[in-house]
Amino acid sequence: MGSLILGTFLRFYRLSENLVFHGELGHNYLAIKNFVAEGSVPLIGPPTSHPWLAFGPLYYWLMAPLLFLGRFDPTTGALFMALISVVALVAMYWVGEKLFDRRVAILSTYLMAISPAWVSLARESRFYSLVALLFFLFLFFLVRALEAPKTSSGKQQKATNLFWVGMFLAVMLNFHLTPLALLPGTLILLYIHRRQLKKKALLLGGVGFIIPSLPFLLGDVQNRFSMLTKLLIWVPYRVLGFLGFYPRNNITTQIAEKNLSSLYDFFSQSFVIDAKILGFILVGGVTLFAARRTVRTLGENRKDWSWLTLTALFVIGYIGLFIHADPPAHYFVTLLPIPILFLGLLLGQLFGKRAGQVLVTLVLFLMTVTNLRFFFSEKWFFLPETQILKDGRVPYRVQLEAAKTIVATARGEQFSLSRVGPFDQFEDNYAQNYQYLLWWLGNEPVKDTKIRYTVYEDITKLPQIHKGKVYWIGNLAVLRVEKPMR
């Protein structure tokens, strides 16, 4: 209960003051707003980084009623995703106790409550946050499918569990494509247990996978399955390139170093932040523990499939991310629960000895103090609210004031909008967050009008000579220009 209270506090405290609201979130919310206004049901979800591919629509289906009930306030999505992260704490305890023991469950839940990576994910309000929660259910049912007895009732349990394995894998894929990295490990584990699997069980797993995929497939039918076809080509294309059979996406020493560095950061930031020595010790300890336990488990007659499943999904899943070549940090969301479980298992084992209890208490104390010092600083809870940050992030308060300034000075007239700043090479200059706020405040921008506003998040690019008026919100500039219409 203490872990749940602490974790909830860290996820909700000053959430609106530190709200993350960038162009990609604005794009998602604008799409949802349009679907609600049209009364239509989308079959295709948010776009991916590949222009030919989109996710499934479950995120839109989930967020549409929530935004509607929240009167389309941008904080609605942040509150919901923070709540999802709290639910994930409950899922961690439940899975930790079911697959391992109560001690591991308690320790892992506490580690997750104070984890910088988990708290950060909760604050980002992104749709892929749901993947981390769904992983717990996927893991639980996969282990139960592998451990089901060979009796007739056990075979029925195996089939039912595989149905849920397929179901939750497909649901995860609605929110991001990185759960595909779980598929090879899952298939290998099922192959090892092939003698215990009946066609009915595999069929049910396939049915479970297809059900959440139906909306996407129906949407892709309209494009003659172009997305599915290109995806099926793209996966082996990436693999062949990685293996050197194709002169693109080849592995290099530089890429390998970046991959290993990102893996280390993933583990370290799952545990602590701004603590290089402590992070190194924890990552090193977990690595040695995982290697020794895996070797020992493989040598036992009675296998610990909870551990082997967790390890296989991580190792083989990471290889999938490695093949992608220098994956962005959020690609690790599929594997996010695993480092915490690894450390929880290590500390749980140490806690069984008297000397180990002292060591575990010391480690938890150091982790807690380190992370809370970071959270209660100007690097996290008390970030500046009236100035663009050094890393380029724009506080929500500044964004909202900029939007209010535009609405007030436009005085009900139509206007167009552009943006100058990071990622402005993307669609609509990556200004969809401002577009959404302007719509929410009552005057949505349109194309090709006499009045044009440009938001300068990068003020070094603000023209020295112009025929307009500049409004300043901290160190963000809004330039209004009126041009004669032809």
Automatic annotation (TrEMBL):
Keyword Transmembrane helix annotated: yes
This protein's membrane topology, according to the annotation, is: Multi-pass membrane protein
Task: Tell me the GO molecular function terms.
Answer: pentosyltransferase activity
Transmembrane domains' residue ranges:
52-70, 77-96, 102-120, 127-146, 166-192, 201-218, 277-295, 307-325, 331-351, 358-376
Q: Give its localization.
A: Cell membrane
Coarse class of the primary localization is membrane
GO cellular component assignments: plasma membrane
- Tell me which Gene Ontology terms the entry assigns under biological process: lipopolysaccharide biosynthetic process
Q: What is this protein called?
A: Glycosyltransferase RgtA/B/C/D-like domain-containing protein
